[in-house]
Amino acid sequence: MRLAYIVHQYPPHSLGGTEVYTASLARTLTGSGHEVHVFCPQAAQQAAPTDGVHLWSMPAPPVGAEGPVAQFWHTFRHRGIEAEFARFLDAVRPEVVHFQHVQGVSARLIEMAAGRPRVFTLHDYWAFCLNSQLLRDDARVCMKSRPTDCVNCATARPDLRRLRRLRPLVALPLAYRNAYLRQAILSADLLIAPSEFLRAQYIQHGFPAAKILTIENGLDMSRLHTDQGDLPSPPARPHFGFLGSLAPTKGVHVLIKAFNRLPPDTALTIYGSDRACPEYGAQLRALAQHPHIRFAGPVAFDRVGAALNQMDYLVVPSLWYENSPLVIQEAFGVGVPVVASRLGALAEKVRDNETGRLFEPGDADALARVLTELVQHPELRSTFQARITPPPTMTKHAELLLGLYRRLGQHPVAAPPTDLDTQAE
Q1: What are the residues whose beta carbons fall under 8 Å from the beta carbon of 286, sequence distance 6 or more?
Q2: Does 113 lie in the same domain as 35?
Q3: Are 67 and 34 in contact (CB under 8 A)?
Q4: Model-level pTM?
Q5: Fewer Cβ neighbours under 10 Å: the N or C end of the chain?
Q6: Is the model's pLDDT at 214 over the cut of 80?
Q7: Which residue range(s) make up the domain with 245?
Q8: What is the domain-level CATH number for residue 403?
Q9: Are 152 and 66 part of one and the same domain?
Q10: What is the 3-state secondary structure (H, E, C) of 206-240?
């Protein structure tokens, strides 16, 4: 089949879960003899891939050079990208178009691809949440998503806070955004949610249940089986680990506070970059009092398996509604139990006292108690390992998607409504 994948960023420029998943899926399908084209605004910033995937290059939209109105508009509409996508469709003529993410690209691309099967994977909450994470500007989980409630997040920057006095007016473009995204996304023939929790969130926000299929993301197992190489050995056992970006929403400070209370013959390695949040990174280092807390920096894409294999437990202390964290799949792929916040899809992915442990999000005392129990009962690790079900391989996942693509292709695709469409500037 001739397939098109649309995504906002792509490795190695960005190594987020959506980007890694898209690249792995594209590479797997190419290896199976399919013709795969990836449309991505960031493509011009990197070398063309050498794995047979066709990456469509184009100049990326400028970052930071626009005013707040243009920045907001270009998070979901961009005339230049739409024109380039029209050229892409004419040149590639894909049989199926699968949208992975269109934030910072243009939601209108979904409607432009009418006339062929269109699939949209819901990787986060972007369709009804400006910051995609259902997290308020005060770092608390958001239980509402009305446009008037979203004004605080939209005006979080100090230079924009004066606009909160005009809350009803500021809420209008936010309401338009949500309505437009809903219409555009629903014009796709099938929506895929990688977790039941995320599917339920979309249904709660008015998306039709019949149109959303839960399919767990596949995992490329081949890149996880690498030797330790130059990674430093853990200074003590049991060895706990964190792997992800050093950002407040990831809850690393909760982990450090908890770990400071553990005995000195234990170890914690924190893999991740604080480039996006350097002040938070400095706070974490100042907070660490345990002698065996190590900050090891970001781990290379092909060294993730080696880093996880050194751990007795992976800890995921996130403070937001994670959807389907790639790092949990990776940990289970190499047989490492997980300790995670009892929040969002984390409680779906990690079965408490079966494949790991859960604790109340943000509660360092609760996490310290869980970690202490694991230290005092080392036999629990092998018990948890025996109950881990490996995630679906990317090969099996790709086969499932191909079956969906073919079934969608057997039915005529109706043109989407255009009542909310406008011309992007």
Answers
A1: none
A2: yes
A3: no
A4: 0.90
A5: C
A6: yes
A7: 229-387
A8: 3.40.50.2000
A9: yes
A10: CCCHHHEEECCCCECHHHHCCCCCCCCCCCCCCEE
CA angle 292, 340, 193 (to 5 degrees): 140
Per-residue pLDDT, 419? 44
pLDDT digits over 298-356, tens only?
Answer: 988 888 999 999 999 999 999 999 988 999 999 999 999 999 999 999 999 999 999 99
- pLDDT, tens digit, for every residue of 147-177? 777 888 888 888 888 888 888 888 899 999 9
Residue at 415 is within a domain: no
Is 357 a member of any domain? yes
Asked whether residue 420 is domain-assigned, the answer is no
Q: What sign for the dihedral angle of Cα 325, 326, 327, 330?
A: positive
Question: What is residue 421's predicted lDDT score, i.e. its pLDDT?
Answer: 44
| Number of domains comprising the chain | 2
Q: Does 198 share its domain with 336?
A: no
Q: How far apart are CA 392 and CA 390, in angstroms?
A: 7
219-256 pLDDT, tens digit each? 999 888 876 667 888 999 999 999 999 999 999 999 99
In a domain, residue 318? The reply is yes
Cis peptide bond N-terminal to 11, omega within 30:
no
Do 186 and 260 belong to one domain? no
In terms of domains, do 63 and 125 share one? Answer: yes
Centre a 10 Å sphere on the Cβ of residue 206 and count the other Cβ atoms it contains. Answer: 10
Q: Are residues 402 and 379 in the same domain?
A: no
Mean pLDDT of 19-32: 95
Q: Rounded to whole angstroms, how far apart are CA atoms 76 and 312?
A: 42
Residues 131 and 180 in one domain: yes
Whether residues 376 and 402 share a domain: the answer is: no
